[in-house]
Amino acid sequence: MAAAALRPAILRRIRLSPSPSFSQPFAAAAAAAASHPHALARWLSRPMSSHDAHLTREEVVDRVLDVLKSHPKVDLSKVNPDAHFEKDLGLDSLDTVEVVMAIEEEFKLEIPDREADKIDSLPLAIEYVSNHPMAA
Amino acid sequence: MAAAVTSPVRSEVLSLFRSFLRTSRQFSDYNIREYTRRRAADAFRENRALADAPTAAAAFAEGKKQLEVAKRQAKNTMFHATLLTKMW
User: Fold this and answer.
1) Could you list the residue range(s) of the whole structural domain that residue B35 is in?
2) Residue B16 within a domain
3) Could you tell me which residue ranges the Complex 1 LYR protein domain spans (chain B) (predicted)?
């Protein structure tokens, strides 16, 4: 029973691993889980749950902040959940496009252009991801 | 006599840039992927300062051509990757 619930979680971890080794799924799962502490915490705390899809708002905020912090042009000291990309973080419109793409990749989403054009700040990015049913 | 040339609208430019980033994702080779992204970002940033309409329009048209090249290359990469997986 527990295996059925763990299987999608393990498969998700294998996808996350950069060089999946199909003969060692657990090693890959452990390695990938270590680099995604939120996912690991979620996985451990709900082992019996088969509905593992929903992200907490806290997790969305943390992960979106991490995406911003990994962008080379962002001033790390200014990153907070209320920051505006161009006004607070000193990014330009091209950087904003890059950031929104990075958010797509982090949460495995495909954001249509007309929606992506509206996302110009952290609150909007967090809102969009939190409301998206497919965010992972 | 020449037809009036208009600069591309801001949203068009950002949309073209986004298309480059999406296309570069299709490359499985990390180096090619990163190069495509970096090159696109540098070119768009460089051309941002183009003030007069004809030059800006020409740069935009060139950008669209380059996007088609990148898309074709991405398709070839995927095609070759598929061939390889089928061989194994």
Assistant:
1) 31-45+68-88
2) no
3) 12-69
